[in-house]
Amino acid sequence: KKAAEDALRAAVNADPAMKAKWGTAWDDVAAAKKIDIATSERRALLGRATGGSILMGKASTIVRLVAELPKPSSERLREFGDAQLDSLYLNLYSAEPIYDSLEIYGLSQALARAAERLGADDPAVVTLLAGKSPAARAAELVKAGTLRDPAARKALVAGGAKAVAESKDPMVRLAIALDPESRELRKKFEDAVESPLREAYSKIGAAKFAIQGDSVYPDATFTLRLSFGPIKGFVDAGEKVPAFTTFAGLYERGAQRKGQEGFEIPQKWLDAKGKLDLKTPFNFVCTADIIGGNSGSPIVNARGEVVGLVFDGNIHSLVGNYVYNQESGRAVGVDSRGLIEAIRTVYGADALVRELTGK
User: Fold this and answer.
1) What is the pTM of this model?
2) Using an 8 Å Cβ cutoff, are 94 and 88 in contact?
């Protein structure tokens, strides 16, 4: 990758017109990345601290929403523009169940992480913890919160900035306290990182196209694309890994890892073991070049049949951000036969099976 970049830069710098248009792009990327590295952890930690619970996330949304709505749509933060409001309201006023124990756990973990990384004396951490341990503070915020009821959220938004400013809800108060720094960090990111990177990457893309044309693999642009490759196993640390797993392997792995957290087989699957065809393929790997965001994509065979759904890549595919590796990198999909067998036998959703298969 370095050799390819050096060659591209050399070609740009060798042409005065290209150099004038695109020559600074790589230095602009480096400058923006320095700022990104210096601020990204704080930005991420403060965001996760308020995103550690559903309730805290809704409190933060409400605080931002009432501040943004009075502005023209074009001047608001992008997620509060008119085009986004319907989906925002759908999420904000959702009657989804909220469980205090899960809220407390998630929030306490986020608070502890912020305190660990930023330090107990950091002003934002002092505000977050209010002199309490992460667990105690999380419990206090969740138990005293008033936003479980969608009607309470609607009332706050309807009351506007005045109602939010006068709210006694502890999560709303915390969101108000954190909002100024959060906005400042976001603005710095958008102005000093996001915008310069967008411009610099556009220049590099133009240079690549001018010099290399369509001879190189295209960058990901979030547009529809097709990736292809055979279903094929791989070798990991000298051991051959087959292309398919089966239901039988699920139960074998569960027995091997019995007692290890994260490897427990759900009771519903244990109960269904005797009714399942254990030879049914469960997951498979193929050499299709995928990346984060491809999960859920259909895997189609040469006959146009949907044979699976992408849900992951193996560890060797992590370099896919930079270079395609078909020797050991693999896309992982759940096999359609395993899906149908599980839906029918484990979950008893026969109507869904008929809808999917026509029989």
Assistant:
1) 0.69
2) no
